[in-house]
Specification:
Chain B: Belongs to the binding-protein-dependent transport system permease family. LivHM subfamily. The complex is a heterodimer of chains A (306) and B (301). Chain A has 306 residues and is mainly alpha-helical. Chain A has 14 helices and two strands. Chain A has a two-stranded antiparallel ribbon with strand order 1-2. Chain B is mostly helical and 301 residues long. Chain B is built from twelve helices and two strands. Chain B has a two-stranded antiparallel ribbon. The termini of chain B are far apart. Classes of the chains: A mainly alpha (306), B mainly alpha (301).
């Protein structure tokens, strides 16, 4: 019932948001919401803390940007290219990182993400400090002109919905059940005969690919890919979004992303104090409400999954 | 001497100089991790805090107390700044981290990440992001020494020797003395050690203070070499994490040896292929993970 309310609010918001909010802002919200939901697939449903998800988000943005700008591919192919590249990166990073657990896992993903960051900084095709600028939005299927903000908005909303439904589907599938079993008790899952490492790796690849979908879409929305997207602080931000909204809940990351992006949007005038506010929010979340906003609501209403 | 060998030696020395900071920081992390099972993400920020305290002691404290000519120089800062950072660390432990010990260590990682953001943001606001040179380099440390293959700044030589001594003393205290034995016992079985009448929470707090003090000390040592900037710890901490993964977090000596060696390797890489110098430590991490997932000096499991 409450879940239905969340769905109605979300779909209603998606349908009418650009008519009362600045469309680019809403598109930014959706990209980060998808990014956080993808990240949550890993931390919330598999129990793996990746501290390097910015590498997939930012890396995909660069790949999509390059394919669209230099090769002149249509927008959908650019986004697919970014997504697949991120999934491939996820496979490499994941297969290395799952060799260790817990905080080591976090440190390894962080260090590997830093290699991606240095690539983005030093490779000739990434534009170094300037990033990739002037990525064309192009025409969707040769019919819809994406330079029109409203058309672009509904395209992004559709991508968000596809990604979000995919995550919903994954979580509620037998595969997702195994992931949650691994999160709850890994040795038990292992003793039941599940190839735990393979499940973890697959979850990592899916999460990285979906983060890449979000990153590619963001590159198309803002028409540039920059170092900020690949920097480790971005990995931290997506953790905060998920933590704030509620790890392991379906809607939590979306709510968390909306709050953090809105906060950044309205506090952008106070310079680096934003960082202080974000850091303080982090501390408060960890100390006071580890379940996150949606998690706390779920607990108050005694609902198992929200 | 063959110019190539000369170049390798010179870059090696400079690399060793960076290795000092890798060693001291990963040593502090190892001490904290050993006793508290906490990965202190704020370590880089506390290193930055140490450097800024040295700068503040020299340039600002005099003005604040109305004596514009007073500059608290490098030598007093070398003692004062680490102590202040240690006190700050103990406050963090006492009031924030202590609440999280019963939970997954991931939460303390996230908490210290939040502290990093707050510290960085504050210093960017007051000192802006670009960084300032430290003006208080002592006269006796200016100039260079002839090492035979290169002219090496006296101060950098001092930093290398001084930090080797600090690392050795830390290792000795933890591995070879009675205090260290208690610390190590406290990490193995806090309940049992408590039963012997040892105040474990106090010991934990002091250890955290000591580990963060080491970060502050590294910061003061770094101030005259690198420019003092709010972001100086931000990228270093990730290298330190890679050092920790390579070394394995089990041993104190492992942290120090890995730290120095990786600085050296990074320096020598600059001679052969400069663009790889940034990433060589991470690539080594990948290789070590493939061959020996628990790290070079790590305990299995």
């Amino acid at each position: 019932m409450v879940q239905a309310v969340f769905w109605v609010v979300l779909l209603g918001f998606l349908a009418i948001a650009p008519f009362f909010l600045y469309p680019v802002f809403v598109m930014q919200l959706l990209c980060f919401a998808l990014f956080a939901a993808a990240f949550n697939l890993l931390i919330g449903f598999t129990g793996l803390l990746s501290f390097g998800h910015a590498a997939f988000f930012g890396g995909a943005a660069y790949v999509a940007g390059h394919v669209l700008k230099v090769w002149g591919f249509p927008p959908i192919l650019g986004i697919i290219a970014g997504t697949l590249a991120a999934a491939a990166m996820g496979w490499v990073v994941g297969s290395l990182a799952i060799r260790r657990q817990g905080i080591y896992f976090a440190m390894i993903t962080l260090a590997l993400a830093q290699i991606v960051y240095f690539f983005a900084l030093q490779m000739p095709f990434t534009g170094g400090e300037d990033g990739l600028q002037g990525i064309p939005r192009g025409n969707l299927l040769g019919i819809f002109n994406l330079s029109d903000p409203i058309t672009m908005y509904y395209f992004v909303a559709a991508i968000f919905l596809v990604g979000f439904l995919a995550i919903y589907r994954i979580v509620h599938s037998p595969f997702g059940q195994v992931l949650q079993a691994i999160r709850e008790n890994e040795p038990r899952a292992l003793s039941l005969g599940y190839n735990v490492d393979r499940f973890k790796l697959l979850a990592f690849v899916l999460s990285a690919g979906l983060a890449g979908l979000a990153g590619s879409t963001k590159a198309l929305v803002f028409q540039f890919a920059s170092l900020t997207d690949a920097h480790w602080q971005m990995s931290g931000e997506v953790i905060l979004m998920t933590l704030l909204g509620g790890m392991g809940t379906i809607f939590g990351p979306v709510v968390g992303a909306f709050i953090v992006v809105t906060l950044q949007h309205f506090l952008s005038g106070i310079g680096s104090w934003v960082q202080v506010v974000i850091g303080a929010t982090f501390i408060a979340c960890v100390l006071l409400f580890r379940r996150g906003i949606v998690g706390e609501i779920a607990r108050l209403l005694r609902i198992s999954s929200l | 001497m063959d110019p190539m060998i000369r170049l390798i030696l010179a870059q090696g020395m400079l690399g060793l100089n960076n290795g000092v900071f890798y060693a001291m920081l990963s040593l502090g992390l190892a001490v904290i991790f050993g006793l508290l099972n906490v990965v202190n993400f704020a370590h880089g920020a506390l290193y930055m805090l140490g450097a800024f305290l040295a700068l503040i002691l020299y340039s600002y404290v005099g003005q604040w107390i109305g004596m514009a000519d007073l500059h608290i120089g490098f030598w007093p800062a070398l003692i004062l700044a680490p102590l202040l950072v240690a006190c700050f660390g103990m406050l963090i432990e006492r009031f924030l981290l202590r609440r999280l010990y019963k939970l997954d260590p991931i939460y303390s990682l996230l908490l210290t990440f939040g502290i990093t953001l707050v510290l960085q943001g504050l210093f960017i606001n007051y000192f802006n992001a670009s960084g300032t040179p430290y003006p208080g380099m002592p006269e006796s440390m200016k100039g260079v020494t002839n090492l035979g293959f290169m002219m090496f700044p006296k101060y950098r030589l001092f930093v290398i020797i001084f930090s080797i001594v600090v690392c050795f003393v830390t290792w000795y205290v933890i591995e070879r003395t009675r205090i260290g034995a208690r610390l190590r016992a406290g990490t193995e079985n806090p309940e049992l050690v408590k039963a012997f009448g040892i105040n474990v929470p106090l010991m934990v707090m002091l250890t955290f203070g000591f580990g963060t003090g080491l970060a502050g000390l590294a910061g003061v040592l770094a101030a005259p070499i690198y420019s003092v900037s709010p972001l100086m710890g931000a990228n270093l901490i990730i290298v330190i994490f890679a050092v920790v993964v390579i070394g394995g977090m089990g041993s104190i000596a492992g942290a120090v040896i890995t730290g120095f060696s990786l600085g050296l390797i990074e320096g020598v890489t600059k001679v052969f292929y400069a663009p790889a110098a940034n990433t060589v430590i991470f690539l080594l991490m990948v290789i070590v993970l493939l061959v020996r997932p628990s790290g070079l000096f790590g305990r299995q499991g």
